[in-house]
Amino acid sequence: MRLLTAGESHGPMVLAVLDGVPAGLAVSPAEIDVDLRRRQLGYGRGARQRIERDAVRITGGVRQGRTTGAPLALEIVNRDAVNWERVMSVEPVAEPPDPVTRLRPGHADLAGALKFGHADVRDVIERASARETAARVAAGAVAKALLRVVGTDVASETKSIGDVVSEPRFDREAVEASEVRSADPERSGAMVAAIAAAREAGDTLGGVVAVRATGVVPGLGSFAEWDRRLDGRIAQALMSIQSAKGVQFADAFAAASERGSAVHDPIRVRDGAFVRDRNRAGGLEGGVTNGQDIVLEVAFKPISTLMKPLPSADLRTGEPAPALVERSDVCVVPAAGVVAEAMLALVLADALCEKFGNDNVDDLCAAVERYRRRLRPLDARR
Ligand SMILES: Cc1cc2nc3c(=O)[nH]c(=O)nc-3n(C[C@H](O)[C@H](O)[C@H](O)COP(=O)(O)O)c2cc1C
Fold this sequence. Notes:
- By secondary structure, the chain is α+β, with helices and mostly antiparallel strands.
- The protein has a single domain, classed as Chorismate synthase, AroC fold (4-Layer Sandwich).
- The chain has helices at residues 29-40, 48-51, 85-88, 109-116, 122-128, 133-149, 172-177, 185-200, 230-239, 252-255, 260-263, 333-356, 361-374, 377-381, and strands at residues 2-6, 13-19, 56-60, 62-63, 66-67, 72-77, 153-161, 164-165, 207-214, 244-249, 267-270, 273-276, 284-285, 288-289, 294-300, 311-313, 320-322.
- The longest helix is centred in the last third of the chain and has 24 residues, at 333-356.
- The model has no long low-confidence stretch (mean pLDDT 96).
């Protein structure tokens, strides 16, 4: 399964092309829109979210409610584009927009302008922007639909915002009811207050998102080559989310200072199946899923556009200049959790298709069934 996205933050739309989805999978725009809406919510988002009403238009790969095996084309219109027609015009305009030249530390502005030789940082901002994650979330919703067919579910919860920490419970109803996507009502309130205080100070906040996949088919990924290791592929996908700066499986950084006897998950046999009583491996051993839940955390840095800007420089003159101040989110951790779900789902769906084939969803299910039967070696030997 391959995903490409295109489109600028203030262009006419963002779009996803998702190739390799098996034929016969039930897909509906309404189902995708649920996740698009979830990505837009969360206390701490900026004014842009009041303009956008994200909804997918499927323009390829689905007929009569089912995938055909052709690439899916998923379009999400940017309603804000009407306010940016002159700035974003494909054709040169008579009155060109003023170039953006004041660089924001922490954003892609300087690195992107140097790399591509842009004199107007707008050319960088438009594509580095996380508006692109709407396309990822739409594609991720399709990946989730495929995973559900084999009983795999992906969920996320905010673990921390700033210095307010809560222990994730993955109580879906409570998470979705919270403005910051934390199941703990008291901690939710404290997180909201922390974001409000940061906004008041012209500042921003980051945090940590916990992500979990349940009902995972064992044996996805491989240790045979470095780039087939599924933990590496998952970490790459999650690290590619705008402002993600770290990924850990289970409590890997704490485990690094403990003894092996405390860290590894003893193996037992129950009812003819291999089981574990704990899951400090986070669901993967040797880069292969072991059938336990995949549990991981992603650290998101505070947003880099500050209403009280940091000292910076002007790209054109090199003179000192405060960083660009542009309409922006204050905290995106709740939204980032929804994006993280999408990225984990895309990697797991890809690995599932790799192992069981991606021509037809019924063939895939039959292959998973047969495989699950052979996973009970102790039954077979009795
Ligand atoms: C859902 C989401 C929304 C974001 N919104 C903003 C924003 O409004 N302002 C901003 O400066 N950065 C925002 N970011 C982060 C930037 O896109 C990101 O910091 C930038 O592309 C540089 O990439 P890096 O932080 O991964 O190095 C957002 C990130 C996510 C995941």
